[in-house]
Amino acid sequence: MERGKDICYSCGKVQEYLTMADVTEDGFEIYCDDCHPNKKIIPQLIKLADDIASTRFMDYPDYDEDNPITTLPEALTIFVQESMRNHDEIDLTEVYDEFEKLLG
Ligand SMILES: [Zn+2]
Question: From the CA of 72, how far away is ligand 1's center (Å)?
Answer without folding.
Answer: 21
